[in-house]
Amino acid sequence: MHRLLPALIVLFSFGSIPSAVKQYRMFVEAYERQQSGNLTAAMKGYATLLTRHPDTFLRHEALFDLAGAEYGLNHFPQASAIYSGLETVKGPIGANASYNRGNAIARAAFGAPKAPGYTDELRRSLACYRRALLASPGNNDARINYEIVFRALHSRTPPSPASGGGGGKGAPGQQPQQQKLSMDVSNLVLDNARHEEGQMMRRYFRPAPPRQTPKEQKDW
After folding, report:
1. Which of 83, 114, 164, 203 has a CA-to-CA distance to 23 between 20 and 30 Å?
2. Are 75 and 105 in contact (CB under 8 A)?
3. 3-state SS assignment for residue 183
4. pLDDT tens digit string along 87-100?
């Protein structure tokens, strides 16, 4: 307690120390509700903190966890919008925001595969994963999810026969048995890929944890 006092004096004036402590406690209370599974109450807690203290020193952490609560309730567009505002934050929060935004966009797209903008949404998701990997090349989940979304995007395009080297056309109506077999195998591979995507999505499309949990922080 005494060792933290000099740091507090540097960060805050004497008049603002009680406010900082109050903000921290509000954040911890919302976080604990989120950890216990009460996501709606957690969202209200984060929203209250951000409304009462819009310039709080915990703003980025609160927004990150608020987006996580939205994601946990399958509010993917809302989560994506919040993560979008955090992508420029330096450090783990920005990198994880890009990764989590990619997850939110992908989950929303996979929920409506026949929507007109399905392929555009998958491309947006891939762009988020690329940003996450540029910021954190060792993010294996981002690599895996990138491959899942990339494969889902290209599975929408029917396989095309290989082009010949001479540029000539085959006889009209000609369909060699080998080509038909290749198409059948390709369709089988794509069907298996879609099944694997569903399984891997449930396993891997989880938001990254916050940069630091309240338990890891010093209690003022």
Report:
1. 83
2. no
3. helix
4. 999 888 998 999 99
